[in-house]
Amino acid sequence: MLAYHPQTMHSYLSVRNRSHFMDWDHQPKQFKIYPQTFVRIPLDKKNPEHRFLYLIGGITAQKSYPGMTYALRTNPSAGALYPTEIYLQIRDTKGFVNGIYFLSPQESALVLLHPLEEEEGVENFLHVKRVSGFIFLFSALYYRSSWKYRDRAFRYCLHDTGHMIGTLEASCTLSDKSYRILYGIEKKALNALFGFGAEEFFLSSVLVGEEDKNVTCKALSLQLPYVDGTGTFETNERVEKAYDETCELSRKLQVAMPTFDLDKERLQQAIWKRRSIREFTQKSLLKEEFLEVIDFITQPIPSDCDVDIEIYAIINRVEGMWQGVWKEGVYVESGNFARKAGYLCLEQALGEESGVTFFLVGNDALNYQAMVQKAGIIGHRLYLISEYLGFGCSGIGAYYDEEVAAFLKSDGMVLYALAIGR
Ligand SMILES: Cc1cc2nc3c(=O)[nH]c(=O)nc-3n(C[C@H](O)[C@H](O)[C@H](O)COP(=O)(O)O)c2cc1C
User: What backbone phi and psi angles, to 5 degrees, belong to 95?
Assistant: First the structure.
């Protein structure tokens, strides 16, 4: 069993005993900004390829508090801390110079980091041949999250990156593009190639394009400056060790694509309007809605390392269904567990007042990075389908790990909780 997961469990006592203070003077920056010497390509939302990119983590709302404005995005993020950054290679795509880019949400622009020479590319680091189209690379600037969540932050970096892949999946669905996730990439070599400091590391890659199996690319030579993406970085050894220990994984190919039967206009609205619900009215969901949600979130996710995730649903308020603990079409236990679900989510009302509170559980410690990112992707699908069907969702990263597992009678790792409802 990977040490990191149990080391970062919440319990009733740990939450109360931990002397945790927020060091507001050291709040990390939310945006990484490359020097202005790099060319910017502003994203024009009327251009279909630009819009495709904009919807992957782009800003869709602003929220202001005294002294602080948060830019809210197509992806949710634990604590609105947004550790995930996006780099991409674009090749043979009309309107773009072949190159390595950074997708800058604050500037709403692509930043050209390096024009590609003939047949040069990142492909070798991904163990693929020449790709025409887009290759996305997702990294986490972990201190943005560990500043608040300390050791547990590695989990949130993985969830958040999963959500970001979820925004990519949604944008691909709108643009009729197919995609494939690669977790088995040369992460540490890429970290060095992109000039990262210890605070930033790659977690995954997504191909959106055609691979030409006959052409091997030349190694990419990048000379990028170090750019400080947090401003106040402090090392977290447990997070760095967890990353280090989980970079290797075994391959379990999933080639099937999801088949989403969605109205494009409504999907587009859902992507733009997606927000985390802050409070439920406690009105019930309908059984048909619940079943549509389950069908949507259990569609295949194409990747080179597919991990089984068990989906438990605590049915609190669904018209036409008994209350109880439901797993893959079967009731594990019947009864009203709403209050218990709220307690398990660190006494958050969201868990109690929802229509359904989900717990995602996995058991594949050897593929930890792929597993927790997949939980984030499923979480993102939950957000989107809820918005699409006219209700709401919230991710819940804080829960009493061992008590949840005991309640579910599971010996797996509890990876993520989410609540949906009206
Ligand atoms: C991994 C993850 C964990 C989260 N955990 C919680 C939580 O425990 N409680 C909560 O109220 N919101 C939680 N959220 C929701 C975030 O607070 C929310 O996404 C963020 O404030 C941005 O707002 P938005 O989703 O409306 O854009 C979580 C989100 C994510 C992605």
Answer: 95, -5
Hey, what domains does the chain have and what are their CATH numbers? 22-246 (3.40.109.10), 276-421 (3.40.109.10)
Q: What is the pLDDT along the chain (422 residues), one digit of tens a residue?
A: 689 999 999 999 988 887 767 888 888 999 999 999 999 999 999 999 999 999 999 999 998 888 778 899 999 999 999 999 999 999 999 999 999 999 999 999 999 999 999 889 999 999 999 999 999 999 999 999 999 999 999 999 999 999 999 999 999 999 999 999 999 999 999 999 999 999 999 999 999 999 999 999 999 989 999 999 999 999 999 999 999 999 999 878 999 999 999 999 999 999 999 999 999 999 999 999 999 999 999 999 999 999 999 999 999 999 999 999 999 999 999 999 999 999 999 999 999 999 999 999 999 999 999 999 999 999 999 999 999 999 999 999 999 999 999 999 999 999 999 999 99
Ligand 1 pocket test target in 396, 401, 415 with most atoms within 8 Å of CB: 396
pTM of the entire predicted model: 0.98
Q: Which residue has the tokens 């438990």?
A: 312
Spatial contact of 124 and 222, defined as CB atoms under 8 Å apart? no
| Residues contacting 370, CB < 8 A, separation 6+ | 183, 204, 249, 303, 305, 306, 307, 364
DSSP secondary structure string for all residues of 370-403 = HHHHHHHHHHHHHHHHHHHHT-EEEEE---BHHH
Query: Which SS3 state, helix, strand or coil, does residue 349 take?
Result: helix
CB of 159 within 6 A of ligand 1: the answer is: yes
Q: Output the six-digit token pair for 212.
A: 């030409």
160 C-alpha to center of ligand 1: Å?
Answer: 10
Q: Which amino acid, one-letter code, is at 318?
A: V
Helix H or strand E segment including 143: helix 143-149
DSSP character string of 67-120: TEEEEEESS--GGG---EEEEEEEES-TTS-SEEEEEETTTTEEEEEEEPPTTE
Give dist(CA 390, CA 15) in Å, integer.
34
Question: Alpha-carbon distance 13 to 287, whole Å?
Answer: 37
Distance 279 CA to ligand 1 centre (A): 12
